[in-house]
């Protein structure tokens, strides 16, 4: 089985820890190890480096190369510019097809996720691989049994049972909702009708390429032009010309939302998956109790609770008094003080840095 581990995100919701040139997936935030390193350690042990591909941006390609020297150089799929995930997934799929793996079961993963139960995840990948080998014209989501009613994730409704294998169940995908109302999430959690959607799935490159041909014909033609140039002396020039002109659209909007429902299924598993996608989500992931403070570096909190306080400047102390539900991050060139309810606005704030003298801090 082939593995595609996407590592091109900028991690703006983790600013100022995460920066364009060194985003969160490369930062050792959990047990002194980055999420991408954790995943690649396991995946390389299970499948070998020759089965793994890492799409990333031109800005981060050297970071991938230097951190993971065992990864074959031609398995680092470099996007010349960031154009959202529909072009990125398409580029990855045509690359695998060009390398002769178009009909192989292929797992798509994201490098900023955390998998706590490795053995369960490995078993799920094995079951998914077997299923896609038998039915290569399907897309099989790897669902996670919900741990609580989370309104900040995507949820997949379980349909009728299609297959059982090694204690795992594959269901029809009966619906998908992104960031539901909390009341709905509570009901689904209590009735066990849905699974969390980490965004992981197993399919074949040829099947996904066919979906581009059906639902994104213009992008498909652009991808075919790029594919002809791959592994030739024209590759760089063609990529630089075509890729920036591709529509910047998510893979969900371009493909997944348009696919026939009977072409996608969901496997239910328990991987102890987590997506600490914001600084407060990281605090929740690391805390033992809700009112706990999570700290790093030289920090002193006085009558402060439910806060994350990170200090990356060794010769400074960061002190807080009476904070409740705050994020405080001190780095050598930037400081963030933000209430947990305002975290969604970090991205909007950073947008205003672009094309100004503040852009160097991104």
From TrEMBL:
<protein>
    <recommendedName>
        <fullName>Nucleotidyl transferase domain-containing protein</fullName>
    </recommendedName>
</protein>
<dbReference type="InterPro" id="IPR051161">
    <property type="entry name" value="Mannose-6P_isomerase_type2"/>
</dbReference>
<feature type="domain" description="MannoseP isomerase/GMP-like beta-helix">
    <location>
        <begin position="303"/>
        <end position="352"/>
    </location>
</feature>
<dbReference type="Pfam" id="PF22640">
    <property type="entry name" value="ManC_GMP_beta-helix"/>
</dbReference>
<dbReference type="InterPro" id="IPR029044">
    <property type="entry name" value="Nucleotide-diphossugar_trans"/>
</dbReference>
<dbReference type="InterPro" id="IPR005835">
    <property type="entry name" value="NTP_transferase_dom"/>
</dbReference>
<dbReference type="GO" id="GO:0004475">
    <property type="term" value="F:mannose-1-phosphate guanylyltransferase (GTP) activity"/>
</dbReference>
<dbReference type="Pfam" id="PF00483">
    <property type="entry name" value="NTP_transferase"/>
</dbReference>
<feature type="domain" description="Nucleotidyl transferase">
    <location>
        <begin position="4"/>
        <end position="285"/>
    </location>
</feature>
<dbReference type="InterPro" id="IPR054566">
    <property type="entry name" value="ManC/GMP-like_b-helix"/>
</dbReference>
<dbReference type="GO" id="GO:0009298">
    <property type="term" value="P:GDP-mannose biosynthetic process"/>
</dbReference>
